[in-house]
Amino acid sequence: MDNILRIAIQKSGRLSEDSLKLIKECGIRFDNGAGKLKTSATNFPAEILFLRDDDIPGYVEDGVAHLGIVGENVSVESDRDVNTVHKLGFSKCRLSIGVLREHEYAGVQDLEGKSIATSYPKLLGKYLAENNVKAQIHEISGSVEIAPSIGLADAVCDIVSSGSTLLSNGLKEVETIFKSEAVMISSKHLSAGQQDLLDQLLFRIKSVQVAKNNKYILLNCPTNAVDEITKYLPGMKAPTVMPLATEGWCSIHSVINENDFWENIEKIRQAGAEGILVIPIEKMIL
Ligand code: PRT
Ligand code: ZN
Asked: Which residue has a Cα nearest atom 14 of ligand 1?
C-alpha cells in the first residue's frame, strides 16, 4: 500500500503523551482505545502503530513503519539507516557521564582505564574515541545509576533530565556527551505518494510548532507611539493598526515571539502601550 503512512509511536512511556498530542494537533483523528497495537486514522490516510521505543528505528528502516517518533538518543544509538526529518521539541534530555560525588574529577582523561556502565555503548564509544580515552564500556539495560555504588563500574553514562536520579545515587554529572529531543524519523524508501503525505504532515507540524512559539497581542497606544511600538511587533507581514474612538489613540494587533516576550513587552510599555492582551494561537500558517 503506497498511499498510506504508517506512523510508529511509543506505546507507553515518556514520549507517548506528547506524540499522541502532536498527531492530534495536526488534525489527525483516530481511536486510541487502550491496549491497541494499531489503529487507523479516520480523516487522513495514516495508521498508528504503538511500539516500544527501542524497536521503532528498526521498524522504520525495514519499512514496516514509514515514520516514527523517537528520542534522538535511541535513534542515533540504534545506528539504523533512516532519515531524521524533523526535531519535535519535546522530551528534551541529555546523555551524560556521572561519577561518584566524592571522586575529584579533573577532566575526561580521568576516565582512562575506568569502567563505565551504560545502555548507550555506541554513543559512549564514539565520545571516548573522539577524546582519545580508553575505557571499558559495561553495557547494561536498566538501573544504570546504581552501578558505581555497588562496585559494578567506576562511572555511568545515562540519560539525565533534572539530574535528581544521579544525585540520589550519590553521583555527579561531569560530561554531557549528547543532547537529545524527540525526532521524527522516516524510511528511506517512501513512495511518491507517501512522500507527499509526509510533506503534508510536516507542514501541519511546523504550523503547530510556530503557533506555540508565538502569541497574538492586542494593545492600545497614543497614535504618536505607533512607530516605536511596531518596531518590537513586526507581525507576520506588518501589524494591524486601527484608530480608536478616542481621538489620538490607536489599537495595534500583531504577533509576539515567546523567545524575547518579556523584553519586548517592557519596551512597548515604556513606549506608551496600555491595555495589553496576549492570547494563545492555535495554528499559524506561514
Ligand atoms: O518501554 P519503552 O522501551 O518504550 O520505554 P523506555 O523505558 O525505554 O523509555 P522512556 O519512556 O523512559 O524514555 C523514552 C525517551 O524519553 C528516552 O529515550 C529519552 O529520549 C526521553 N527522556 C527524556 C528520558 C528522560 N527524559 C529521562 N529522564 N528518558 C529517560 N529518562 C530517565 C533516565 O534514564 C534516568 O533514569 O530518567 C532518569 C533521569 O531523570 P532525572 O530527571 O532524574 O535526571
Ligand atoms: Zn526503551
From this structure: 14
> C-alpha cell of 213?
512559539
- How large is the greatest C-alpha to C-alpha distance in the chain, in angstroms? 78
Please choose from 53, 75, 78, 176 the residue to mutate so as to test ligand 1's pocket, defined by most ligand atoms within 8 A of CB.
53
List, chain by chain if needed, residues with CB within 6 Å of any ligand 1 atom.
10, 13-15, 52-54, 71, 73-74, 91, 93, 158-165, 180
Each residue's pLDDT tens digit, 124-164: 999 999 999 999 999 999 999 999 999 999 999 999 999 99
Beta strands in the chain (DSSP E): 5-10, 38-40, 46-51, 67-71, 83-87, 93-100, 115-118, 136-139, 155-160, 171-180, 182-186, 214-222, 240-243, 249-257, 274-280
What number does the ligand 1 atom closest to the CA of 16 have? 11
Beta bridge partners of 257: 214
Mutate to test the pocket of ligand 1, among 161, 176, 179 (most ligand atoms within 8 A of CB): 161
The pTM assigned to this predicted structure is: 0.91
Copy the grid coordinates of residue 57.
528505528
Residues 6+ apart with CB under 8 A from 160: 93, 94, 95, 96, 98, 166, 173, 176
CB 101 within 8 A of CB 145: no
Alpha-carbon distance of 216 to 235, in angstroms, equals: 9
Q: Give the C-alpha distances (Å, rounded to integers) separating 58 from 68, 70, 87, 282.
A: 10, 11, 19, 34
Can you spell out the DSSP letters for 20-33?
Answer: HHHHHHTT--B---
Ligand 2 center from residue 71 Cα (angstroms): 10
